[in-house]
Structure formats: C-alpha cells, structure tokens
Design goal:
Rossmann fold, binds iron/sulfur cluster
Length: about 425
C-alpha cells in the first residue's frame, strides 16, 4: 500500500476558485493568445471538465459521494498528460496542488476497480510479467558496453525507450558517457515503473521502486545517470513520494545526462567540443524543447503533513514545488557551447512548456489526442521559424518525430546526446 490519498487534497479541490490559471500561460510570459494555452487536455477537448479546474470539481464530487467513477469520469481522469502545466499556473495564484489531485484520482480509480483503461492495463501487465512495457521477453543483445571496474563511480539507467525502441540513442548515449572517462556500469532492470504509476497502480510502482533502490544499495552505488526525462523524474520525485520520503533522504542522487555533461564541460572543463554542427544544421534556428519531466516536474519531492489555519496558512510551513527549479539550463548551456549556433526559444518554454503530447499514458491510451498536441507543438515551432528541435527525453523525441513525419513539417529533431556526440566527433548528425 502507498500513503498517497485523494483525501489529502480535498482542501485543494475545495478551494479551486475557477480562475483558469491552470489553463493559460501567465500573460507576462506569453507574447500573445495564439500560443497562450498550456493545458493540452482542454486544448483538445474544449470543456472545462478536461482541465485541472474541472478535475478539481470531479475530485470533490467523488470525495463527497455526489459523483462516482463512471466511464465519463474515467475518461476525464485519463485524458490528461500529467504534464504539470496546470500546477505551475495554479501556484502563481493560489498554491493549490492540482497535479497531486490528478495523480491521486488515478490511484483512487484503480483502488475502486474502475481503472486503468484497457491500453494502460495491458502495458502495466507487460511490465509486471516481463519487466518492461514493450513485453519483450529477453533483453536485446548489447554489443556496446560501458567500461566498468568492479566498483564503478556511476550507474547508467537507459530506460525502456532507449533499450527497446530507439536503440541508436542507447548507443549514442553510451558512447558519450564512455568519452567522459568516468567509470559506468549499466543498470540491469530496464523499467523505472513509470507506466505503472501513470496508470494509477501505485502499489505496483512502489514495488518496482523498492526493487530498484535495493539493487543500488546492494551494489553500493549512489549516483544514477539517465538520458530519459521520465526515468529522471521517477527516480527523483516519484520514488520518494511512493515511499513516504523526501528526495534528499534517498540513498542516491539522479542526474540527467545533460547535467553531467554540462558539469564536465562548463565547470570542470574536462570535455571539449571539437566539431562544429554539420552544414545542414549550421545557421538554422535551433530550439530546445523542455520535456515536462526534466523541467517543471523534476523539482525535489518534499513531503508535508500538518494543519491549515485561516486562509489556508500551513503549519508547519509547506514548501511548494512551483516548477522554478526544474532542469532548464544544462541542455541550453551545452547547446550554447557550440560554435555559431543560433539558439531560439519556443513561445511556451521552461516551466510554461507545452507537453509533446505523449505523457501520462496518453500516447498509448488516446493516440489521436497525443498526436493533436504534438501537431500543436510543431505548429508553434513553425510559427516562430524553428527549424531544429532538440530535447532531453526519448519519448518527446519519438513522438514529435512521428508527428513531423505525419505532417511533413520541415523540422529536424534530435536528442541532446546526439548533438553532444556529434560535437565530440563520435557521431554524424547528417546520417540521422
Ligand atoms: S488555477 Fe487552480 S484555482 Fe485556478 S481554476 Fe485552475 S485549479 Fe482552480
Ligand atoms: S496535467 Fe497537463 S493535461 Fe493534465 S490538466 Fe494539467 S495541464 Fe492539463
């Protein structure tokens, strides 16, 4: 069992004032109305029910017993990317916790036996039976190895997408990590458990968290490096959340590859770019797409319990996660270190980024909705002249690349590790 309950967020649901800060990018951050909505769900389904606002009312009705987990309620609960844009917006106004309401709605729906929806249930089953969401019985052979002594400094957690789906990213990331000269071992378990958590199966996700942490502890390892934004957030935020702990109490720390590489390049000066961008990319407008899970969702988890007084004042004081301290700078610093690069920004960037559309189980459960959001993101890019998109999440890369192919959008997409590998002379971007 896990101690994450919808009931703990009843005060938040009750105090939603309907201001819609969870839907719109705050006006001081957006240049106009065209890219002003940041909630993919309401952007696609139009009704307030498909926003954090509506889901707060739904949560209240479920808690008070005036609503039940009907098929409509389940539809509303799962047609959401769990992207956290609403949470950032809400905390500019009222310091409520809409994202925790969205997560605990799923957990409660599963407890009541009304969820997960069949596509997410099938993926969860694959994770439970085979250890990975793709249902692959045997790990693919891995000709690319990382150097490892008996006591490696770091452990590389590739995640299921690189291991089973985008093998070229696995090889590129391994090559970049090898080039750092640090001693890595590769984590044996492919899954961080995120598919279970987004399905609402918190108990099963917790079991994976415990198994993964226990492996680390037995191996005496303390630092994990991953190139996957979803794995990064799961290890950093969801594991302590599931275990009733805090990020800074965990027996390990987790780094995204961009953070490690940024440190080695800009602070320790032990990594140097030797190759410029290839001619096909030189002079192009390049933008970094903030993956929700590496950016606004990745702030440290700090549990809170206490009482609320007048105006909701908390005792002891509650520390809020507002998205401000997510990882935004490391990938940008790596890109800015490239000679002659023209780095531009999406109108919706950093904590106001628009989800690529794949998160929260949406890519599997509601592919049309997922694709519509990806199309919006590409349209936003085209509107401001972006020609190349770089990201730090294999799921964003896969999903936006598929959308670009579908629409014929004149945009090239890369993972940050591919760009770094090229500039280190380990990879040829023009061949990909
Ligand atoms: S921003 Fe917060 S208070 Fe305002 S409508 Fe959205 S959930 Fe409710
Ligand atoms: S998590 Fe994302 S998709 Fe879901 S309600 Fe919030 S902003 Fe909308």
């Amino acid at each position: 069992m896990v101690d994450i309950k919808l009931e703990d967020y009843q005060w938040d649901a009750l105090n939603c004032c309907g201001c819609k800060g969870c839907i719109w990018v705050d006006h001081i951050y957006t240049p106009g109305i065209r890219h002003g909505i940041k909630c993919p769900s309401i952007m696609h389904y139009f009704f307030d029910s498909y926003s954090a606002l509506g889901r707060c009312k739904l949560a209240l009705g479920l808690l008070e017993g005036s609503l039940e987990f009907s098929s409509t309620a389940i539809d509303i609960i799962y047609k959401c990317n769990l992207c956290g844009a609403c949470d950032v917006g809400c905390k500019r106004n009222l310091d409520l916790e809409p994202l925790m309401i969205l997560e605990t709605l799923r957990i409660k729906a599963v407890e009541k036996g009304s969820a997960p929806p069949p596509p997410l249930k099938a993926i969860a089953q694959s994770v439970l039976e085979t250890g990975n969401p793709y249902g692959v019985q045997k790990l693919p052979s891995n000709p690319e190895t990382l150097s490892s002594s008996s006591a490696p400094q770091l452990v590389f957690f590739p995640g299921c997408n690189m291991l089973f789906n985008q093998r070229h990213l696995l090889k590129v990331t391994q090559n970049v990590l090898s080039a750092t000269g640090l001693d890595f071992a590769q984590f044996p378990n492919p899954c961080c458990g995120r598919p279970l958590y987004v399905a609402g199966m918190a108990t099963e996700a917790k079991a994976i968290a415990e198994a993964n942490i226990s492996f680390l502890e037995r191996a005496g390892l303390h630092t994990i490096v991953t190139g996957c934004a979803e794995c990064y957030k799961t290890w950093k935020v969801d594991y302590p959340k599931l275990l009733g702990s805090a990020t800074n109490q965990m027996p390990y720390r987790v780094l995204h590859t961009s953070q490690l590489l940024d440190t080695l390049m800009t602070r320790q000066h032990t990594l140097q770019f030797v190759h410029p961008l290839p001619p096909a990319l030189a002079g192009k407008k390049i933008a970094y797409h903030d993956a929700c899970n590496l950016g606004r969702l990745s702030e440290e988890w700090i549990p809170w319990s206490g009482t609320r007084g007048k105006w909701g004042l908390t005792s002891p004081p509650k520390i809020y996660r507002r998205g401000t301290y997510g990882e935004y700078d490391s990938p940008r610093k790596l890109l800015m270190a490239i000679e002659d690069i023209e780095l531009v920004e999406f109108p919706r960037n950093r904590e106001n980024t628009l989800c690529c559309g794949s998160g929260g189980g949406v890519m599997n459960a509601f592919p049309d909705f997922a694709m519509a959001t990806a199309h919006s993101r590409l349209k936003e890019a085209i509107d401001v002249g972006i020609e190349v998109i770089v990201t730090g999440c294999p799921f964003c890369l896969e999903h936006l690349t598929r959308a670009a192919r579908q629409t014929g959008a004149p945009i090239r997409l890369y993972d940050i590790a591919e760009i770094v590998a090229h500039c280190l002379g380990l990879y040829d971007l023009e061949q990909h």
